[in-house]
Amino acid sequence: MNRLALAAVLLLWSFAARATDVPEFHLAIQDHAYQPAELKVPAGTKVKLVIENRDASPEEFESTEFNREKIVLPNSTITVYVGPLKPGSYRFFGDFHQDTAQGRLIVE
């Protein structure tokens, strides 16, 4: 039983170590706009986007160019993993406020 518990602990530690290796970037939604509107991330690397909605209404973080879609409830935070992506510029937007919630992921 002790070997099984040790194996489980090592396996969990391995997953935790990998999770911390993913670069993390932050976006905020405030007044139905993304801040910053452009976010630079490394090419060829999986990245973690932490998106905080500071508004009192929900928003939907969406990108058809890197195929992500997720609801962000009012005054809450979500995590979205993206990539690895090739160098380029990828559009994302807020589906509920497309007139103002626009952004670009610049992959370099």
TrEMBL record:
It holds the Pfam family Cupredoxin_1. Residues 4-107 form the EfeO-type cupredoxin-like domain. Keywords: Signal. InterPro entries: Cupredoxin, EfeO_Cupredoxin. Residues 1-19 form the signal peptide. SUPFAM superfamilies: Cupredoxins. This is EfeO-type cupredoxin-like domain-containing protein.
